[in-house]
Amino acid sequence: MSTGIVACGALATHIADIAAAESLDITIYPLPPLLHNRPEKIAGEVDQLLHQIKEKHSKCAVAYADCGTYGALDVVITNHGVQRLGGNHCYDIFAGSKEIESIMESDAGTYFLTDFLVKSFHRSIIVELGLDKRPELRDDYFKNYSRVIWLAQQPTAELEELANVAAAEIGLPLEIRIVGYGQLAAQIRQLLSN
Question: Could you read off the pLDDT of 78-112 as tens digits, one per residue?
C-alpha cells in the first residue's frame, strides 16, 4: 500500500514531480492552498483528512511546515502518530531556515513569493485581501514591507513576468533567488522512511 500524504495544495504539484522523478509510491491528498489565509483552520483540516485516509494506507504523513498554526498542527500529527515537513513555513523548506533567518535579519520587511504564489498571486492575495475592489487599501496592507523576494523553484520567463507583475501590484521592488526544491525532496524521502 502506498503512503498517503496530506499536502498543502501549494506544494502538491512539486511533490508529485518529485514522486514521479524518484518513483515514490505515494498518494497525495492536497488541501486548498487558500487555507494559508486562514492558518487557524489548517490543523483541523489536516486532522479531518488524516481520519479519512488512514485506513487506505500503511503509512501517512503530512506535507506542511507549521505554516502559522503555532503548534496546533504538531498536536494533530502527534495524535495521529505521523510526521510533517520541518520548518516554520515552506520558505524554510525551499531556501533553508538559516537563509530565511538571514534575509529577515537584513530586512524584516521582506515579502516572500514561491512559484505557486507567483502563479496565483492575483487570486490568492489581491482578491483574498479585497484589493481588487478596494485598491486604495494596498498601502495599508503592505506599508511595513520594503521588498519582495521570489524564491524560485522552477523559474521561467513567464513566471518572472508574473513575479514582476505581483511585485508591482503591491508597489515593491522584486528580487529573484533561484532555490529549486531546496530540501523538499529530502524531507519527502525522510517522511517515507520514518
Answer: 999 999 999 999 999 999 999 999 999 999 999 99
Q: How far apart are CA 71 and CA 159, in angstroms?
A: 33
Cα separation, 83 vs 96, in Å, equals: 19
Q: What is the 3-state secondary structure (H, E, C) of 48-62?
A: HHHHHHHHHCCEEEE
Largest separation between any pair of C-alpha atoms in the chain: 53
Q: Taking each helix axis as running N to C, give the angle between helix 184-193 and helix 9-22, from 0 to 180 degrees, rounded to the nearest 10.
A: 80
Asked if residue 86 lies in contact with residue 187, where contact means CB atoms within 8 angstroms, the answer is yes
Give the cell for residue 135.
485598491
Cell 498571486, residue?
121
Taking the C-alpha atoms of residue 62 and residue 73, their distance in angstroms, rounded to an integer, is: 9
Q: Taking the model in full, what pTM does it have? A: 0.90
Give the pLDDT of residue 1: 63
What are the chain's domains? 3-91+182-193 (3.40.50), 97-178 (no CATH)
Q: Are 91 and 151 spatial neighbours (Cβ–Cβ below 8 Å)?
A: yes
- Quote the pLDDT of residue 106: 96
Segments of the chain with pLDDT less than 50: none
Which CB contacts under 8 angstroms, 24+ apart, belong to 152-157?
152/115, 152/176, 152/177, 152/178, 152/179, 153/14, 153/94, 153/114, 153/115, 153/179, 153/180, 153/181, 153/182, 154/115, 154/180, 155/115
